[in-house]
Automatic annotation (TrEMBL):
Residues bound to Zn(2+): H88, C114, C117
Protein name, entry field: CMP deaminase
BP GO terms, sorted: pyrimidine nucleotide metabolic process
Cofactor: Zn(2+)
GO molecular function: dCMP deaminase activity; zinc ion binding
CC annotations in GO: cytoplasm
Organism: Paenibacillus crassostreae
């Protein structure tokens, strides 16, 4: 008999995408799940703090940052826009799970963690971070830092999210 079940990476990433549908952020819906072995320990998505108006109700609170980066041997200015009304999915996951559960665990997240979230995850006890969509603005420094912490950091490039989780959002 042929096993037609989804592999574990697909199974947990599908759950992360389903969780992301709870987000009301107009820029990006992000979901994260905490897994130890094959056991799901927690889920979270990006959004405003509980009891506060979210971006769909009050609009985004955009903060702009400018940084110098090396591109093809030249320094270039790169502008990042971040919504500061929203707590990221990874941050919510850390807020609503216990440290003991995170020790030795894996985080599946729909989007590559930003620098701040990667720092928090690196200090949380997780040993692996699996993501689907890339976030190129922070990739190099996030990858370098996680490698130096010996945290497995990998992208599911051939993964296809469930159709019902796909939304039209902007970067």
């Amino acid at each position: 008999m042929i096993d037609t079940r989804k592999d574990w990476d697909t199974y947990f990433m599908d759950i992360a995408y389903m969780v992301s549908t709870r987000s009301r952020c107009g820029r990006r819906h992000v979901g994260a799940v905490l897994v130890q072995g094959k056991k799901l320990l927690g889920t979270a998505y990006n959004g405003a703090p509980m009891g506060m108006p979210d971006c769909s109700e009050a609009g985004c609170m955009i903060s702009e940052e400018v940084s110098l980066v090396q591109v093809d041997g030249e320094e270039k200015m790169v502008k990042k826009q971040r919504c500061i009304r929203t707590i990221h999915a990874e941050q919510n996951l850390l807020l609503f799970t216990d440290r003991i559960d995170r020790e030795g665990s894996t985080v599946y997240v729909t989007d590559e963690p930003c620098w701040t979230c990667a720092n928090m995850l690196a200090n949380s006890g997780v040993v692996e971070i699996v993501f689907h969509r890339s976030y190129p603005k922070d990739t190099d420094k996030v990858t370098s830092m996680l490698n130096s912490k010996e945290i497995i950091f990998r992208q599911l490039q051939l993964y296809e999210p469930p159709n019902e989780t796909l939304t039209s959002v902007s970067n």
